[in-house]
Amino acid sequence: MAIATINPFTGRTEQEFEPHDEAEIERRIAAADAAFRTLRTTTFAQRADWMRTAADLLEEEVETLGRLITVEMGRPVAGARAEVLKCAKGLRYYAEHAEEFLAPEQLADPSVVGAAAAGTRYAPLGVVLAVMPWNYPLWQVLRFAGPALMAGNAGLLKHASNVPQAALYLHTLFTRAGFPEGAFSTLLIPAAGVERVLRDPRVKAATLTGSEPAGRSLAAIAGSEVKHVVLELGGSDPFVVMPSADVGRAVAVAVTARNQNNGQSCIAAKRFIVHTDVYDEFVRLFAERVAALRVGDPLDEVTEVGPLATESGRDELESQVADAVAKGATARIGGFVPDRDGWFYAPTVLEGVTAEMRLHLEEAFGPVATVYRVADRDEALRIANGTTFGLSSAVWTTDEAEQEWFIDNLDAGAVFVNGMTASYPELPFGGVKDSGLGRELAAAGIREFCNLKTVWRG
């Protein structure tokens, strides 16, 4: 894939960029390594001041950045601006809490290990490579960069090739805020260039948000180099609705949970598993609300669903739906490519999905919801867990015992009860099974790229 901004609404190439050559890659790795050696000696207070300045810059430039995101990957502009502001909030959170999260801990009774004092402390690892996707071109990056830099690490970013302008903005953000030159740098390289960077001895670890194949490839390289990785991969999140649920509220949330960001989110609700007692009401209301979504120019303030980010992604979604329909599924609404310019796919609700259909097992990365009718909670759980993915999940029930049962038994990195999955700086984020390993965000996330040192004093 060329490194280029191609407007998903028009299909027109807005700008192309030359990949960095070997000399520039070497210069940026060396600069990151030098920046780390400086950054690790600074205080939390100094890093926090710089981080707050970076947050200020994001807020000051929210209008420009919102439009940039929309033009590069098609997210409706109101949501794009919200992403920018979420990034600013996240950076401020780590400016405020990093020192607390990484505070040394002392053993209450060091005599049990024959010491005068003993405990642990956190030290930064060094240069960390971030391989990031296009669907949240700022938030996915900054939810790594904020905690990583506050811990004293430096970062190298290999961003998705269809959001180069977002990548170049991030290249300058932290330096403009006061961080040492090279503390966070963008590498304009193709996917094939990742291995060379990850094998460089100055690069100590890596994080990737993306597809399962990409995660497996990165993990294999890192494993051969004995380097730490954090992986946030795909998801096919279940959204379970039981008889005691507030169906109207569940429907309202379901529409957003499936279709925000044009349905292109790993943690979007994708499989709607509904008890037979409320199935007909839920599907009727859900289909009505999805059909009413405003589809159009993502730069129009009223647009709720824009084009998919790439033509290949739109074609893949079309193929998945066609496979399901050919094998007996029914499109309650949607199920087609609209006759218009741009990489659009009509918001869709599919019923009658069965195990032999691709959509039952694969992640649908676009505005397509699959709905399952179930007889009881055991069948709901079987379908919910009947996937290789395990990123997040949602369950709607007002029965407290039932809530606890689902929390205990859902195979997922998170369970949201009577709500929609979202990522918050205050809560750990990550999955199980093929959805990844390790955690981002909160105390768990900032500690991923630290060396937990045991300290014993005699």
Structure description:
This protein has 458 residues and is of the alpha/beta class. It folds into two domains: 4-232 and 433-457, 3-Layer(aba) Sandwich (Aldehyde Dehydrogenase, Chain A, domain 1); 237-417, Aldehyde Dehydrogenase, Chain A, domain 2 (3-Layer(aba) Sandwich). It is 42% helix and 18% strand. The protein has 15 helices and 18 strands. It has helices at residues 22-39, 44-60, 62-73, 77-101, 139-150, 164-177, 194-198, 212-225, 247-259, 276-291, 311-326, 358-361, 377-385, 400-409, 442-447, and strands spanning 4-6, 13-16, 105-106, 117-124, 127-131, 154-158, 184-186, 203-209, 228-232, 237-241, 269-275, 330-333, 348-351, 368-374, 394-396, 416-417, 436-437, 450-457. The strands form four sheets. Strands 12-13-14-11-10-15-16 form a seven-stranded mixed β-sheet, sandwiched between helices. The chain has a six-stranded mixed β-sheet with strand order 7-6-5-8-9-17, sandwiched between helices. A three-stranded antiparallel β-sheet has the order 3-4-18, with no helix packed on it. Strand 8 (203-209), helix 8 and strand 9 form a beta-alpha-beta unit. Helix 2 packs across helix 6 (164-177), helix 3 (62-73) packs across helix 4 (77-101) and helix 9 crosses helix 10. The longest helix has 25 residues, at 77-101. The chain is globular. It starts with a strand and ends with a strand. The mean pLDDT is 98.
